[in-house]
Amino acid sequence: MPRPREFTESAVLESARNQFWETGYAGTSLADLTAATGLGKGSLYGAFGDKHALFLRTLEGYCADVVSDAHGELSGGGRAIDRLVEHLRNSARVGVVGARSRGCMMAKAAAEFGARDAAVQHIISSTFTLWHDELAAGIAKAQDEGDIAGSVDADTLAWTLLTVLRGFEAMRKAGVATDHLAAALDQVLGTIPRSG
Question: pTM of the entire structure?
Answer without folding.
Answer: 0.88
